[in-house]
Amino acid sequence: NPLVCKLVIKLPVPTPEDNSPDLKRLKYSLKNLGYNNICIDYDALKTIPEVVRDQNWEVTATIIRSSPAPLLSRLESGDTSADNYGIVFDIGTTAVRGRLIALENGKILAEETTYNRQRDYGDDVISRIAYCHRPGGIEALQRLTTDTLNKLIENMTCSAGIENENVSLVVIAANTIMVQLLLAINPEPLRLSPYVPAVNSLPLIKADRLGINLGKHCYVNIIPVVASYVGGDIVAGVTACSMHNREQTSLYIDIGTNGEIVLGKRDWMVTAACSAGPTFEGGGIKYGMLAINGAIEGFELPNPFDQPLIKVIGNKSPAGICGSGLINAISALFSAGILGQNGKFNSESACKRLRQGEDGFEYIIVEAQQTSIGKDIVLTEVDVDNFVRSKAAIYAGCQTLAESIGIDMSEIDNIIIAGTFGSHIDIDNAIKVGLLPDIARDKFQFIGNGSLMGAYSAILSLEMYQDMLKIADTMTSIELSENRLFMDNYVASLFLPHTDMSRFPSIITWH
Amino acid sequence: NPLVCKLVIKLPVPTPEDNSPDLKRLKYSLKNLGYNNICIDYDALKTIPEVVRDQNWEVTATIIRSSPAPLLSRLESGDTSADNYGIVFDIGTTAVRGRLIALENGKILAEETTYNRQRDYGDDVISRIAYCHRPGGIEALQRLTTDTLNKLIENMTCSAGIENENVSLVVIAANTIMVQLLLAINPEPLRLSPYVPAVNSLPLIKADRLGINLGKHCYVNIIPVVASYVGGDIVAGVTACSMHNREQTSLYIDIGTNGEIVLGKRDWMVTAACSAGPTFEGGGIKYGMLAINGAIEGFELPNPFDQPLIKVIGNKSPAGICGSGLINAISALFSAGILGQNGKFNSESACKRLRQGEDGFEYIIVEAQQTSIGKDIVLTEVDVDNFVRSKAAIYAGCQTLAESIGIDMSEIDNIIIAGTFGSHIDIDNAIKVGLLPDIARDKFQFIGNGSLMGAYSAILSLEMYQDMLKIADTMTSIELSENRLFMDNYVASLFLPHTDMSRFPSIITWH
Description:
alpha/beta, Ubiquitin-like (UB roll), Nucleotidyltransferase, domain 5, 6-stranded mixed β-sheet, 13 helices, 22 strands, 29% helix, elongated
């Protein structure tokens, strides 16, 4: 039951007795197929007389089942129903992911990821919003977004061997800032209290009006957003994993630069964004890096005072450490008593890999000669400090959300971890450092890129898309940045794993 | 209750406790005003964050009350409700008329008429359709239409001293061919049996997409058409004179190159087009001309054998004779017995103004020395023949329409004569020549330009516009060109006034 369908219609041939207009004839046939009150795109309208007569009154009508009325976006001669493709995008601040889908059967024909070209104007959203102050700044960022999309479209349609022309619909899930920049809507109010987004649900927009290189009949459908820092990516993910149908209470966590979290079940959902900072993507960490080739992601300490066993992505010489590597390293060092609950290195430890560095104590993960960068890869106390603040923001966010609806985190039935980064987390270690709540391990579920998964669900299912509209509209957003309770919870979380150890019953601390 | 309205809204100011999106805030306020499920134009959407903040959360929303959902076409800061203008057009094959209206109170601020620039490619619709076969032909004719509209817009907004930007909506009533050429829809099927128009009802279309020079928020609403030769001009006129609310049976006649006729009452309406030919606009008549300065429009014969009393438009020396002049002349000559019932001059008449010309007998209306063209202005038997065929087409059309629903023309309660030409007709003479049915004179009503009148009603009244949609959809069109009954009626009408004199009881023939 996809959001856009192609209907093959044999129109009644006009006669002197029945010479009603082509459009009336078409609308009548559509009505018989259950499509009443249909809207028609002007570009489609213009082609009517030729199209209906070209293949002896057999036509294929492309219908976008939008609300409040279905839209006839394209009219073709003959039966073209086999050529009905859709593209879904997850537009992230850093990366953009696309998927090309045969709408007939839901088959994924291609999938591509690339960097968001907006990064030319800043790695984080705040610097991009700042760039919008320049004359033409908003338009420049819009163009970079569509350039990114166009590149993905080109790659995907080429690799699948299909015509751009035959893409009927694009569905986009993105964070709120990416949505506004795609639409060239001034994002300034997003970064100022009280953090008000311009839009929530969005109308269908023609792809060519946004500069997207697809047929002129192609429309763009954007998954609605909730708040300035809770976007359509979250709405898409939450719906895709069916939280809104569950009887049990679930917590959805998308860990990235902005940890977005949703707590809820069938009857209600609350959401918040906790600015975790870029730590999990390697930012603010001396040798931090993205989870790409050369990044240390595995870290174990079989013998606390000996050298660690590390695992590097792509089996290369290490060049730095990524987010999941950090979690594993800090967890292991903490378990070994080398790192204290306060995030400081135990200077009295017998560990020979500890030394005084320029930023205070530091732990040598890998010596220079074994790296590809010719320098010792170390973990400093400043790194640990930044990490602790990031994980505290996420944990305190989850805690505050739970408290806001009067439950304890132990009462949460399921925790859904979304995001590509999330899939690489070791749950035990993440709990040990106090990033995730200490509940039964089998309650955790990884879903990968929830945003793309949701966009894919939406394009293939009208009902799913309608659920997203409803969810975005009814989800309650809690603003944490000025929330007193959150501040208290945050401060209490600035510890490994937490100042209140009763919250982490399964963690036995070393001393 | 105009089709487009401006609502002034004070939006609730966002706070940290209520930081829902600008659009949600706006939609909520609109819902409270009774506008639910509103659609929003992308250009309006883009401006939201700036517009709402510019005048401290007071905005003016322009809403087009279209179906199936109202459309928010423009959003402005502050209260701009006083600047809400509409333009209506009647696009005829020959002339285009426009009216600029203050939508607040319905006041007409300017009215202009000009020639349709499409005339460069032919005086009649058939030659224009033929022109569309050339590459780029359709687009050229579209451009000429919008050039014509743009010129009228410029004149009207200048003379009224208002900004183009503040025109919210354009409503257009036009014949079917003009509608299709305005929209660049191939008109070819309109001229071939079974004469099928491409469209009937039409979506709202942005003015700038058609090349109309108005604000980019301005939309165009086109009155729906019925058949290839029964356009929105007729639907507009019929509705404006409230035929659809009358208990009595009315006949609506728009006499022009194509006599369009509608017969009906509250419950039903039937319509037909009878190709009267260009006679009434001076075409096919040796000294025929449009009803402009120099045209003979009055003709009386106080003494049958003496010279006629003529009246010339603009009190000039005569240059020719116009449609209403022809009716008056033929009627007078017929009454005087100079012209026989068969449309031939009575060669045995004592009238000295009759002579043998190159086309057979002819009657000298004005001698050369009294004209501005230096030639005798005559009425030839060929002229009379052409005229008789034109009037017969109209009369037979009316008769066939009446018979098709099983009534006699004498049962018609009202006859509404529309069209600028119609207003100049002398009813007695028109009946005497057999153009109009012989019923009580007080049953005739002149409404002038019904098309412009209807477009004006539609822009000022949503209900009226909705009535037009319904009427266009339910009106039954009867194709006369291949109708056996019509052909019989037509042949019987090729007489002055008719072969069946019992149909014209008030006309006493001379012999």
